[in-house]
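Lecture 7, part B: from sequences to assemblies.

Below are the input chains for today's worked example.
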Amino acid sequence: MTNLDQTAFATLAAVASDPVSYAQEWKARTGRPVIGSFPMNFPSELTHATGALPVIIQESRTTITEGRSLLPEFYCGYTRSLADQAAVGELDVFDAFVLADHCVQLLGAVDVIRWAKPQIPTHFAQFISSMDDPWSRGQVIDKIGSLRAEVEEIVGTSITPEALSHSIGLFNENRRLLRELYDLRRSGRVRITASQLQTLVKSSMVMDIEEHTSLLRDILGALEPEEHAPDSLVRIHLSGHFCAPPRPELLDVIEECGALVVNDDLYHGFRYISTDVPQSDEYGDVDPFDALALWYLDRNISAPCGTRVQRNVDWDSYLISSLEDSGADGVITLMAKFCEPLMLYYPELKKALDGHDIPVLLIETEHEGVAEESVRTRVETFVERIRRNKTRLPSLAQ
Amino acid sequence: MSLDLSPREPLELLSTRDRTLDAVDKSNRLSSTKTGGKMVADYWENIFTAKERGKHVVWYNGTALNPIFQAAGLEWCHGEAFSARLAAMHLEGPAQAAGEEYGYIGELCSYARTHLGCAVMTQKGITEKQNGIVGMVDQEELASKLPSPDFFVNAYAGCSTGQQWDAMTYRVFGKEFPIFNVSLPMIWGNKKDAGYLRGSEWEKTPLYVEEQLKKLIEFIEYQTKTPFNWDALSENMFYIKRASELRLEAMALCAAAPTPATYWDWVASIAPINFMPANQALVDYFQGVKDEIQYRLDNRISAVQSEKYRVYFDGIMNWNKLGWLTRKFAEYDVAVVAGRYTHDSFWQEPQLIDLDRPLLGMAQHYLICPINHGLKIMEELLIKRCDEYGIDGIAFHSTRTCRAMTNPQHILARTAETERGIKSFFFEGDVADAAFYKDESLESGLVAMLESIDQQRARALV
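Predicted structure of the full complex, as structure tokens:
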């Protein structure tokens, strides 16, 4: 395994594991507000341009207690955790909440937050989820305008085009560096575990972006890629898991079973960093506010998502093409229990993978965790099955 | 000493589907709703022959777009309605099995799962026909009888799953038939001026939806190669408006105690108001319902033999258990008089319908779907209904696979208790999957709530 720069990685790991403490410390240090947003499409650049700290609110590792009496048990772990965090005061550091996504479970959780924390402003500007209608772009531009007005009011400042362009540049650079790490991992010349990569992406969602970029540069600068990639391990693509990250322990178990995770389309992974906000096009500079709308629409093309609908874009064909790029031998789909968009799309993914003879394993995850030994047995069997297929001699009958 | 176990009586393990309550049936359902049952049965039988009659068929989900489809001369298949029908007839099994075999997990919305199963079966039928194989899909199974669509229209308010579901149906059919999406934003109610049918958000959002409906009509014109009949749309909305007025007038009569009709009668009337053709027969149906209720009121005939408690039902209907629940609540002298699903849905604000500008009133109705409001508006509506109907308690149907309807329930329960001292209980069930219904959970919760109400009443007397 490649040793990531230990000092830089340790800082990022600490923030990723406890974003609330980081936000409290940042707030005390800067005296500026912290604004929480919810996955998966709110443009953090907009909040950043006000001088506030944008934080994508994470699932807490805490056992759900108070939240049990606020949302039903058949909601996904992330939304139940949000309700719980609101009830037990873990969200008190935030000066406002903003969101652009319409997931029925997420809105239920945010309604609980509005109810539990009436003093904290909560703004919802619903981005259209039908991406290729003639009015889609105009609708998103309109909603960016409403969000702009809301965050300006919260922070008490105006967002100038220059400030937003600057923020966009910072976030684009951060995503570019993370994608560089993805490229190195995909090539196999650098071994970065799935849980390490999750830490790098997750910390970028909650940290001051310039501070994060500086630490990423330290990590990249210290890497020593191998000449050639080892080919002894089974190469795996991780798919699914929106909104909240799968537990790092689960990712470690998968890799301990002889799998090498070479790519993913997880939200706490490539989905989050897939797309930059355009800063210019063939006609020159793009208005930065309109650019955020374009980013939202482009994102579903560069990494299609089951929460959006688009006639000419398919997650399944994207997945197949992504596997060809990474040379992955199989797919492990990680599904947060009760996640309806993934439950709906999964049969189409499986159909496409089966059609290409690509092995797939579905693992359901829960807030409370999964039985490690059961997962280990399933993954070992899956890996062994792929390994046998790879080494199978041609039948004499053929 | 003998170690032989004494013979035991076999356990009574029949499901609630197969057994009836031992207690005397104290419910007294309206007889006029039987006409609706026949209307609905005839409607579906007609749909099944649509292709033979050379009609264009649209599959749709969510809001009641049927007046537009009717004006365009289409035959319309409402996904949830068909899933509900299968569940109510206990015929959902084959569709759910087909969905499961295709890969849909049991925790997915059972409306969607059932309907997608129907899609899988219909698609299989098309493939078999193309391959010259006949009869592999049993055409006698109701679930496989839906005619294949010529196109899809989705207009789903409140629930994000609704839009994604049709996107998947579109893919089950190999993207062979076009799809049109009407996007219905949630009325989040965050502004200071926000409330039910008021505030800037309410003023602005329907206009956006109205424009999309105009585009939908252009899409239909393109698909059918026929100019849209705007006069027919206004005429359809005339009938719907009148039917809705009669329905609301009849509902208002049930503020009387004892109530002449119950929530279960209004559940039986959902299909007519939600997707039956708009015509004089529809108006006559609701006139008949209202007349029967008025007759009962005049003659002191109650819907529950000895009404002692008045309960509000929150949650989507458990279609597998309509008859069972009707009797169950009545057994405890409970009149379920109103509910969110029946009273805050389905053309419930007919004054919004302007026959000269029908699309705006339709857009407004699509947005006031009872799962499309933020919590504050839902609290406002709940309290209003509790006051109107003199509610003593609330039954929250914790609908396992319907996250949209269960979203605010825990907080609504607290609001009802805080604002009005109204007790409530939760029971588990589902819209179309009988596996999630737990009779004991309902019974113990109901009994506990009624005891609390008794204590409340006793304290009030002191």
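Note for the exam: Chain A has a mean pLDDT of 95. Keep this in mind when comparing with the next example.
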